[in-house]
Specification:
Layout: E1 6-8, H1 17-32, E2 40-43, H2 45-53, H3 60-77, E3 90-96, E4 106-110, H4 114-124, H5 127-145, H6 151-164, H7 174-192, H8 200-214, H9 218-227, E5 235-241, E6 252-257, E7 269-274, H10 278-283, E8 289-290, H11 291-297, H12 299-316, E9 320-327, E10 330-338, H13 343-355, H14 361-367, E11 380-381, H15 383-388, E12 391-394, E13 396-399, E14 402-408, H16 411-419, E15 424-428, H17 436-441, E16 444-447, H18 455-463, E17 466-469, E18 475-477, E19 482-485, E20 488-491, E21 495-499, E22 504-507, E23 512-513, H19 519-531, E24 535-539, H20 543-551, E25 557-561, H21 563-566, H22 572-579, H23 584-609, E26 614-617, H24 631-641, H25 645-654, H26 667-672, H27 674-694, E27 703-706, H28 712-732, E28 740-745, H29 748-752, H30 754-758, E29 763-766, H31 768-776, H32 784-792, H33 809-823, E30 828-831, H34 839-848, E31 852-855, H35 860-875
Parallel strand pairs: 14-15, 15-16, 16-17, 24-25, 24-31, 25-26, 26-27, 27-28, 28-29, 29-30, 30-31
Antiparallel strand pairs: 1-2, 2-5, 3-4, 3-5, 6-7, 6-9, 7-8, 9-10, 11-23, 12-22, 13-17, 14-21, 18-19, 19-20, 21-22
Helix pairs in contact: 4-5, 5-7, 6-7, 11-12, 13-14, 13-19, 14-19, 19-35, 20-23, 22-23, 23-27, 24-25, 27-28, 34-35
Bound molecules: phosphoenolpyruvate and magnesium ion (MG).
């Protein structure tokens, strides 16, 4: 049997979203439960996929099936396409599986032509309405199907209003609108070169094609990427007989939510316009009245509408967003869907629905979109001011939150300005670990280069600091402390606002407001914790971040990057001395200075985590990142070490690497300089012993993590140093404290040989940032430069550094888990790459059987919720 591509509303139901799209499935469901829905049919998402497979054509088989359903609809309505006596007019609207409001196209009043409209004008006794419908149709069809552009038609309307001395569209007469329709058609012919189509079948096929085509428009592509909607889904098309809200003052159209989508308050919320069609409400051409006023104007329709709202909420057990029309006092439902809402409203609605007995806690947990939670934790821009401020640039939304401050160009300036009470935004070509203090001091960070796992992005997320990265449109002139963007030159001290949740950049100052977290937030997270299997740890390098993460529910630290501590002002001279040492003795002397500092840092972190597990990773980055670049610092170092400036410069030059990310870093540092491993082991173990002594109620089991292992023998070499050093200290302290030694899996070879590696390891932690970088073979800092071209060409749909590539990198993760556990059944498995805070990746880690995910503090609540949703889905 050949595939069925078209369904009458009466043939579908709410469970057929995949095939009929959300709108189609809900129109079918509303039809089934007896609500007043103008009838129609849905052309499936599979027809959309077929359209693309056929080279953007609707093939004959599908066209024939559509025509069969046109005939059925004619039978149901008693109206006919192109019939002068009783014409069938329809709307043609998109409807994907997941709702994508405003992203795709709609056409109303299709089926009109000169003959039909003439008769309609006479028969209805309402010529104004008939001509209004026709001019709207020409306008929409020209814009959506033929891509002529709205503005030419709007200009014609404005000219007509001016000529007639009126200000409102509704003040134009039937004659005016008729004249406008004529002008529109002339405009169409001038732009397209042929007459405006008068055959309703030609109009219909053109409109359906245009909706399919709109699935691939740029705004839909961006929306899908931001919302994790696969390109392969396609959109359905709904062809629905028209109900008219613009036939007079006893008609109207509205959009309403069963609850307030901004606050969640349980009260009907919406807008209504008399004598209008739906687009007028959305387009903001006229100011609609609040829905409550509809009760006075249309008491009967309003009472009926209130009942429909109740029926729909009870039926869907969620807040509904509806479109409806009143035609001569009679209500018609055009759409319902689960309404989009702010994160705060989402939490309130979920809790209220539980309290009202409408849903259970599991469903409440499943209802919240995890990625939206972080907006509740960061400051936000004042919405009113934001609306009025133009966007001057767009880049990666690297770390959420809103920041507004004066532009500075260096970390030192950021620090100095902040110390004298100024709010600053740090604008850099890219950031390096040296900038960390400046990043801390700034309200937010804007970089010209770098992707989602670039240093700036990772560090900013860790701090919960707003960051917009990779704004290639900026022309940077760091030397003269200025940059150019959107045709304007910004100097040091100019105000700039950036939104790390959207990646948008604004000229000037937009005030921010602190986000408030209501009681519902905690309630939903409490429910989430009951259902999840995955533990959630955090990536934290300081006691402050660790404490922050604890507040958000972190159950341990999955990654403490020790290098971040080395950049503090009091440590950097010693680390530089260590790097520039000629002998082991010199190196040990420099490390001896660092050891107590590291130890006290670790004690602070252990204390903040109150006995929860803490994984500390050995020094990871290439050493050249630590060496001075500025002349004065080089001179200081030369003086400290009793060397000449040129000797120091020669050492620095010797550290140069062609591919530092694949160079002398990670465990390779410990293999060449075992004394680093000795020092770090001593600091970790001594800190744990001290904290254990202060807190006998906790059981301290420090976890030492060795990065960038690619060969089991590398791990066993470093591990031997760790064990010898640790055992001696523990013995000397007369303690029997346990500790774990594990490794990161971030080099494909480690994953491929995980059975060998696991014999040496108590745990694996997947470093999916490097694992992604090395598996794809492109740099985590530079991929942003070409990824856009890959999105445009549909080679990649997402940034693999933000959302785990489950097919490739995921296969390595899965393989390493299985190989590892085959030789070491107790192997503890986690992930500490940025993907640990990405909801779809968390679902993958749940399915793969990891024990925990670890992410930056501000993403801990997201990971907790995503882990719960993964477990709930799995159990279904
Ligand atoms: C990783 O590579 O995924 C990781 C967590 O380590 P880093 O980001 O510090 O390289
Ligand atoms: Mg790494």
């Amino acid at each position: 049997m050949s595939k069925k591509y078209v369904y009458l509303f009466s043939e579908g139901n709410a469970n057929m979203r995949e095939l009929l799209g959300g709108k189609g499935a809900n129109l079918a469901e509303m039809t089934n439960i007896g609500l007043p829905v103008p009838q129609g049919f849905t052309i499936t998402t599979e027809a959309c996929t077929q359209y693309y497979e056929d080279g953007r054509q609707i093939n004959e088989e599908i066209q024939a099936e559509i025509m069969e359903y046109v005939a059925k609809l004619e039978g149901i309505t008693g109206k006919k396409f192109g019939d002068i006596e009783n014409p069938l007019l329809v709307s043609v609207r998109s409807g994907a599986r997941a709702s994508m409001p405003g992203m795709m196209d709609t056409i109303l009043n299709l089926g009109l032509n000169e003959d039909v409209v003439d008769v309609l004008a006479k028969k209805s006794g309402n010529p104004r309405w008939a001509w209004d419908c026709y001019r709207r149709f020409i306008q929409m069809y020209s814009d959506v199907v033929m891509e002529v552009g709205k503005k030419y038609f709007e200009q014609l309307i404005d000219q007509m209003k001016e000529a007639r001395g009126v200000t409102q569209d509704v003040e134009l007469t039937a004659e005016d609108l008729k004249e406008l329709a004529g002008q529109f058609k002339a405009e169409y012919k001038a732009k397209i070169g042929s007459d405006f189509p008068s055959d309703p079948v030609e109009q219909l096929m053109g409109a359906i094609k245009a909706v399919f085509r709109s699935w691939d428009n740029p705004r839909a592509n961006v929306y899908r990427r931001d919302n994790d909607i696969p390109y392969s889904w396609g959109t359905a098309v709904n062809v629905q007989s028209m109900a008219f809200g613009n036939m007079g003052d006893d008609c109207g159209t509205g959009v309403a939510f069963t609850r307030n989508p901004a606050t969640g308050e349980k009260k009907l919320f919406g807008e209504f316009l008399t004598n209008a069609q739906g687009e007028d409400v959305v387009a903001g051409i006229r100011t609609p009245m609040p829905i409550s006023e509809m009760a006075e104007k249309f008491p009967e329709a309003f009472a009926q509408f209130e009942n429909v709202c109740k029926t729909l909420e009870d039926h869907y057990r969620d807040m509904q967003d509806m479109e409806f029309t009143v035609e001569h006092g009679k209500l018609y439902m055009l759409q319902t869907r689960n309404g989009k809402r702010t994160p705060a409203a989402a939490l309130k609605i979920a809790c209220d629905l539980v309290d009202e007995g409408m849903i259970d806690e599991k469903r409440a947990v499943a209802m919240i979109e995890p990625r939206t939670l972080d907006t509740l934790l960061h400051p936000q821009f004042d919405g009113e001011v934001l609306k009025k401020t133009p966007v001057i640039g767009n880049a990666l939304a690297a770390s959420p939150g809103a920041a507004c401050g004066k532009v500075v160009f260096s970390a030192e300036d950021a620090k100095a300005w902040a110390e004298r009470g100024e709010k600053v935004v740090l604008v850099r070509l890219e950031t390096s670990p040296e900038d960390i203090e400046g990043m801390k001091a700034a309200q937010g960070i804007l970089t010209v280069r770098g992707g989602m796992t670039s240093h700036a992005a990772v560090v900013a997320r860790g701090m919960g600091k707003c960051c917009v990265s990779g704004c290639g449109a900026i022309k940077m002139d760091e030397e003269n402390k200025q940059f150019e963007l959107a045709g304007k030159t910004f100097h040091e001290g100019d105000w700039l606002s950036i939104d790390g949740s959207t990646g948008k950049i604004y000229d000037g100052a937009i005030p921010t407001v602190d986000a408030s977290i209501g009681g519902e937030f905690g309630r939903v997270m409490g429910w989430a914790d009951q259902y999840r299997r995955l533990k959630v740890r955090t990536n934290a390098d300081t006691p402050h971040d660790a404490a922050q993460a604890r507040k958000f529910g972190a159950e341990g630290i999955g990654l403490c990057r020790t290098e971040h501590m080395f950049f503090n002002e009091d440590r950097i001279p010693a680390i530089r001395r260590m790097i520039c040492s000629d002998t082991v003795e010199q190196r040990e002397a420099a490390l001896a200075v660092l050891e107590p500092m590291q130890q006290s840092d670790f004690e602070g972190i252990y204390e903040a985590m109150e006995g929860l597990p803490v994984t500390i990773r050995f020094l990871d980055p290439p050493l050249h990142e630590f060496v001075p670049t500025d002349e004065a610092d080089i001179e200081q170092l030369a003086k400290d070490m009793g060397k000449t400036v040129s000797e120091i410069k020669a050492i620095i030059a010797g550290l140069h690497e062609f591919n530092p990310m694949m160079g002398h870093r990670g465990c390779r540092l410990d293999v060449t300089y075992p004394e680093i491993a000795v020092m770090q082991t001593r600091a970790i173990i001594k800190a744990a012993l001290n904290v254990q002594a202060r807190h006998p109620e906790w059981t301290m089991v420090p976890e030492i993590m060795i990065p960038l292992v690619g060969e089991a023998k590398e791990l066993s070499y470093v591990k031997k140093i760790v064990v010898e050093t640790a055992d001696a200290i523990i013995k000397e302290a007369g303690s029997n404290m346990k500790y774990l030694v594990g490794t990161m899996i971030e080099i494909p070879r480690a994953a491929l040989t995980a059975d060998e590696v696991a014999k040496q390891a108590d745990f694996f932690s997947f470093g999916t940032n490097d694992l992604t970088q090395m598996t794809f073979g492109f740099s985590r800092d530079d991929a942003g430069k070409f990824l856009d071209a890959y999105y445009d060409k549909k080679i990649y749909e997402n940034d693999p550094f933000a959302k785990l590539d489950q097919t490739g990198v995921g296969k390595l993760v899965d393989m390493a888990c299985k190989l590892g556990r085959s030789v070491n059944p107790d192997l503890h498995l986690g992930v500490c790459g940025e993907h640990g805070g990405d909801p779809s990746s968390v679902e993958f880690f749940h399915r793969t059987g990891l024990d925990y995910v670890s992410c930056s503090p501000f993403r801990v609540p997201i990971a907790r919720l995503a882990a719960a949703q993964a477990a709930i889905k799995d159990a279904q």
